[in-house]
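HUMAN: Mind making up another protein with tokenized structure?

ASSISTANT:
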Amino acid sequence: MKKKYPIKTKYGVFDAVIWFDKRADRYFVTIPAFPGVMTEARSLVEAKKYAGEVLSLECMEALEQGKLVVDNTKRIYGTSVRAGALSVA
């Protein structure tokens, strides 16, 4: 069963979806805020740790590219806004 866990990083709090796959005997982690990001671990504790590491790396990469990062609490991280970087829905 997939379950959401809040993962705190220096860039904010993000959800990580973690589940155990019996066939692979591994925990898998996806990060909804960063589609396509996935990692695996041998235990739930390790999965949460890896989720935090992956989130930090993804946030750093996004910020280096000049993108803004928005966490679960709607806090915005980033130093500059480029024209067209934000869109209002």
Notes: The chain has one domain: 3-77. The first strand starts at residue 3 and ends at 9. The CA atoms of residues 41 and 47 lie 5 Å apart. Strands lie at 3-9, 12-21, 26-30, 38-41, 69-70, 76-77.
